Each structure stands twice: as C-alpha cells, then as structure tokens.
Amino acid sequence: MGTSRILIVTAVEVERKAVLRGLGHENERVKVIAAGVGPVSSAVQTILELVQSPIPFDLVIIAGVAGGFVGRAEVGHIVVADQIRSGDLGAESPDGFISIDELGFGSGSIEVEEKMTKRIYQTLMQAGVPVSMGPILTMNTTTGTTETAKRLVADYPEARAEAMEGFGIATAAQKMNIPVCEIRSISNLVGPRDRDGWKLQDALLMLEEAFSKCKEVL
Ligand SMILES: O=C(O)c1cccc(C(=O)CC[C@H]2O[C@@H](n3cnc4c(=O)[nH]cnc43)[C@H](O)[C@@H]2O)c1
C-alpha cells in the first residue's frame, strides 16, 4: 500500500520462511530477518539491522508463533498485539511479582503503531482469518507450569498470548524512533510444558496465510 520500508523480524528461520511464503517474495521495501530466540538476541540483531541499513526503515513488524492464554487465544488463531509487554521484567517477592514499572526503573510496555495494527486486524477479519487483538507478553522463559500461567493471567488480565522476542525487538525499534506492530500465530496453549503437543506446522501455515492476506496493506 505505502512506500514505506518495513523490517519484519522473526525469531527462527522456519518463521522467516513462512512469512516470506505469505508475502510471495521479499522486495526492496520489505525485508524479513530471523533474529534469534529471546528478547536479547532478537533486540541486538534488530538494532544492528536498523543501524546498518543504508536506507532507513519506517516500520518494524514482529512476527512468529506464540503460546495462547487459555480462553483468550486458541491454537491456530492469529493474535495482533495492541500492546507489547514484558511478562517477567521485574522482581519476585513473597507478595508476588513486582513489575519494572512498579520498581521505578522504566516501562515494561511499548505501544504499537495503531493505524497499521488496526489495518492488519481488519484485513484479517474481513478475510475470515480467526484473529483477535490484545497485549502479547514477552518472556525470557517459556511458561511451563500452571503456577506461572496463573500468575500471568492474574497480572495481565488482558493478555492474549506470550512469546519471547516482542519486547526486545520493540525496545530496539523504539530507540531508533521506529514504530512497531506484532503478529503471532498460536502454536500451543500457555500452561504445563507439552512441547510434543505444539502445533508448530499448523501455526506456521496460519502465519503464512496471515501475511498472504495482509501483503496488500503493508
Ligand atoms: O522447546 C522449547 O521449549 C522451546 C523453547 C524456546 C523456543 C522454542 C521454539 O520453538 C522457538 C520458536 C518461538 O516460539 C515462540 N513461542 C511459541 N510458543 C511459545 C510459548 O508458549 N511461550 C513463549 N514463546 C513461545 C517464541 O517466541 C520462540 O521464539 C522452543
């Protein structure tokens, strides 16, 4: 749609390939990179890409698979973030988790680019893709117990999904004054670890479909 340059950042290569299949091909406006698993690796790789690019990027889109919170995002659905939040940046205490905001050391959430977020969400809705919108949490550690899942559901009542890169990549983009969006395809539910139960292939196919439906509005 626009003439802006977009950097799409996934964690792993299979996600990058799914996005590329959806887009049809990479072009001079849209670049897709796999920046590594977790907020640190993905943030560092993103900032390197943004700083080293001869032509500046206007938008960063975080994309990949994610865990959905039970009753809030089903496996096979797409979640578009209306907020990118760290789910574990802070301190533990006997009275519960204390966020980085409450500690007074900054903010654990980053706002998304509203116009593009709405455009992506509406495009997917109109195309009949199962999609919902809400905060996506970023975790250093994939949740694998009922206890942690309960803590997250209680602390972030609006959160739809968790993944491991969003807050890192968004922080890198924010430092460069570049707006961000996040789109995730749900591969598993957040809860007791069941790695064999992850529907990775289905989620990657849905990620591909989401980008194929959205390519005209990017
Ligand atoms: O087998 C594992 O425990 C495992 C640990 C880290 C990463 C993976 C991946 O397969 C990497 C892909 C990517 O998946 C995102 N993801 C998917 N589901 C979840 C989740 O329930 N909680 C957090 N992250 C999730 C994440 O962004 C990874 O980078 C496997």
Automatic annotation (TrEMBL):
Keyword Electron transport part of the UniProt annotation: no
Pfam families for this protein: PNP_UDP_1
One GO BP annotation of this record: menaquinone biosynthetic process
Pathway: Quinol/quinone metabolism; menaquinone biosynthesis
Entry superkingdom: Bacteria
Cellular component aspect of the GO annotation: cytosol
Listed EC numbers: 3.2.2.26
Swiss-Prot/TrEMBL catalytic activity: futalosine + H2O = dehypoxanthine futalosine + hypoxanthine
Keyword terms, alphabetized: Hydrolase, Menaquinone biosynthesis
UniProt keyword Hydrolase, yes or no: yes
Chain's role: Catalyzes the hydrolysis of futalosine (FL) to dehypoxanthine futalosine (DHFL) and hypoxanthine, a step in the biosynthesis of menaquinone (MK, vitamin K2).
Family in the record: Belongs to the PNP/UDP phosphorylase family. Futalosine hydrolase subfamily.
Name of the protein this chain belongs to: Futalosine hydrolase
The organism of origin for this protein: Baia soyae
Biological classification of the source: Bacteria, Bacillati, Bacillota, Bacilli, Bacillales
